[in-house]
Amino acid sequence: MRDEHFKVQMFRFVDVLASLHRGGEIVRHLDEYFTDMRNGFAPLVRTGVQAAKIVPWISGQLLRWNVSGMARQFIAGKNPHDVMKTLRKRRAKNIGFTVDLLGEAVVSEREATEYAARCLELLEYLAGETQGWIDQLGKNSELFPVVNLSVKISALYSQMNPADPADATAHLAPKLRPILRRARELGAFVNFDMESYAHKNITLELFKTLFTETEFHDWPHVGIVIQAYLRDAEADLFDLIDWGRARGTRFTVRLVKGAYWDYEKIKSSQNGWNIPVYLQKPESDVNFELLTRILLENEKNVTSAFGSHNVRSIAHAQALADQLGIDRSRFEFQLLYGMAGPIKRALVEMGYRVREYCPVGELLPGMSYLVRRLLENTSNEGFLRAKFSENVSEQQLLRDPRELLNGAAAPSATSVTTGDRQLPDGASVDVPPGDTYENASLVNFVYKENQEQMRAALRQMRTQLGKKYPLVINGEKIWTGKTIASFNPSSPKEIVGHVTEAGIPEAEHALEAARSASKQWSRTTIEERARLLERAAAIMERRRYELSALEVFEVGKPWAEADGDIREAMDFCLFYAQQMRLIGRPRLTQHVPGEESYQHYWPRGVALIVAPWNFPMAILCGMTSAALVTGNTAIIKPAEQAAVIGAMLMEIFAEAGVPPGVLNFLPGKGSIIGAHLVDHKDVNLIAFTGSREVGLRIWESAGQTRPGQLQLKHVVCEMGGKNGVIIDSDADLDEAIVDSIYSAFGYQGQKCSACSRLIVLEENYRRVMQRLLSAAASLRVGNPEEPGMTVGPVIDKTAYDRIQEYIEIGKSEATLAFQRKDVPAEGYFVPPTIFVDVTPEMRIAREEIFGPVLSVIKVRDLDEAIEVANSTDYALTAGFFSRSPGNIERAKAEIVAGNVYINRSCTGAVVGRHPFGGFKMSGGGTKAGGADYLLQFLLPRVVTENITRHGFAPEETPQYREEFLWPPKR
Ligand code: NAD
Fold first, then answer.
1. Ligand 1 site: residues with CB under 6 angstroms?
2. Atom 42 in ligand 1: which residue has the minimum CA distance?
3. Which of 886, 615, 853 is nearest to 723 (CA)?
4. Which listed site, 411, 722, 747, 792, has its alpha carbon 20 to 30 Å from 306?
5. Rounded to two decimals, what is the model's pTM?
6. Residue 906 catalytic?
7. Is residue 418 very low, low, confident or very high in pLDDT (cuts 50, 70, 90)?
């Protein structure tokens, strides 16, 4: 496994194997995964593949059998009965057990309930089978029950959301209590396993809450995990110890290093979060030793279980326990089943307690677990690899991890993104444009402080509801006497604000202001304009909770969605500021003796910004900031439904110092002032995002030149979608279901990128539907003021009625497979709805519904799937779930959409990373948040000078001409 590429392909192949049932399919995958191998393994694999092509059935079976054999090394049994055989053998060797139930990720409450039932069953069975087993050491046995169950908390509640620990506890506690009660009756031990960081705080809280309850407060046979690779681990451990002391009953802490290191690093880097894990392996080792000391020093209250395969960590715990005079029978070492056999034997011989962590479950589906184990075993820094495969010396292995830290670069707690906002001389072509930019971060609702800030912002915002907001023209606040009321869609009686309504006279006034400000603004330096955007982003950062809270009230966004919208708005400001610095300077077009040609850009003039309500801050701000940084002046017309958020954007730019007239805030009716300005001879550029109907009207109207018009109008036009997601027959359903459900129902399906057609291959249709429908039935639907909601209300009565009409159309065209019943009576809540037996020509398969309605289309094969995916008028986003490299390549090449997402949700584009926008009837082919977006707002210009005088010319030609910058330096 030294060859990295081979290793990755091998893991991926093993990962998909469980979902392949036909020999031919297995062979095809094998072929696809290993065709390009150019290393020592390749001939072997090639021969295997060739043989397999001839007799696919036998080879397929053989492979499954082989991999099952491999899995058997790490999985202690297929079922409770099977695992008992293993446990008996281990008992003979004086090794105890803790059992963990393997299984698919839990995506619905039905699956969570099944997991809870399996836990109970397993407990009963183990207790029955181990009657009469006595403690291996015969001392302090009261601390270490024979039966020990490790419970995966995330498998007990499918809707666990880090923002909402109270909800998680409310759902998890009732499922856990019967398990705990029965375990106690049976004299068993229950351990709460720790998974990813997102669930850590909830798991700790849940543990403390449950075991403080009267029924359980005096029960000592409970344990929880502390992961030493986490920077929080020490504080969490102290907190637990304090809690335990107050509780007055012992409990156990299993100390491990942690198994999600890569995942945590990737996830935090993607979201701009502080990385919660130590970045250098020895740091975790050092921390493990520190935590070992804390645990042993608190032996009076806590029983320790050291979960490590590292002999240095083990030896350190042993030495410390000796030093503190703690008997060997009062703590234990826990090691994974199938690994580090010699260490376990040695520990037993030395008289220590050893317990094996034994996963139980079907071998092939247990693959993801296996893959994780394999990664651990072969990771470059892993102890096991060093010890058993590379024969590193004893001295090296036992070295104090502190020594390895000496001289190493100080670990960084922040994102690893390699952004450099101030590139000196423009990005090189080798650097991806997005790499020159570091994204703003999302709020991480894992942290209590962040949850509390959001709650406080919601409370505060409630006191502000109903305020009045003026127009802003030429820097002046204007009240027309007419207002547009904006309502809370969760509670339509509640008015979020009254925004002054502009009419035609105000539109003319705004246009006049924008025209006169244009001269000065277009001559303002790029640097100054870029700084304006950066100041605006900083203000948004300062006010981000307040702005998110406003989005919850005004457009019904769940917390994280609202925060995502504000983050995107900040990103637009920062990214466009940076991009303008890169493209703005006059640049030499070509080196040629005797002549200099420089290309640069001028603004187009006055921009009209017309925005939708669904990303009320991000899209409005994105189009506005692009217009301003490129030197255009702008009139912004927010959507009527989100006008208060529009007023906030105006406030923010005003505070950031936008000069009078450069930005004018003109809320009003789209069909009146929007249409008037679109048609106006003095508007040079229209940046529109919204529906197809309005977009096409604008496109057409802008094509006409009016009397007195001096410039062709340019239109940036982003419209709707009818986005299809294909689930291939070998897709990882754990991911496909969660991501498709989120893509379809997240923010009530009101994203232009939302999945509204799920295209499923018939081979796994039954399984997909079974999981999909129960996942939809488990979604949290309700008022998004509550944290952790996935589905809130749709925007207004008109949308509600239109979506209901589509549901009726769906009922007449197709089969209603699922509709939620329990939606709030107040507010515009449309129940999540799924139709099956949908065919591509039906209206529900062709028209944008813009609500929580999903059409499922069953297809024979991938050819048909791609044909169906491409069969609408739109081409905005698309998704594809597959583990076949060949099919993935095909999908990448053949799916017709502006943004194609493979093996992930089809929503959630990030500025700079996923430039966003579609074509066909989804848009004009522009990419918001992309490196070339600003060019839409600019007119390119080339100036050529003959620099020869009497046959002489300077030899050096600068790449950029600072003095050429327009306006000229004074
Ligand atoms: P909409 O078309 O009804 O309204 C968009 C804006 O256009 C509003 O500000 C509205 O007041 C204005 N408007 C309406 N009539 C006008 C006219 N005659 N002239 C000028 N302006 C007029 O869309 P919406 O309901 O606000 O937003 C939802 C739509 O937007 C969906 O179709 C969605 O797919 C699309 N959308 C697309 C993208 C994208 O990037 N492609 C992003 C978000 C939303």
1. 610-615, 619, 637, 639-640, 670-671, 674-675, 678, 689-691, 694, 697-698, 718-721, 752, 848, 850, 876, 917-918, 922-923
2. 752
3. 853
4. 411
5. 0.94
6. no
7. very low
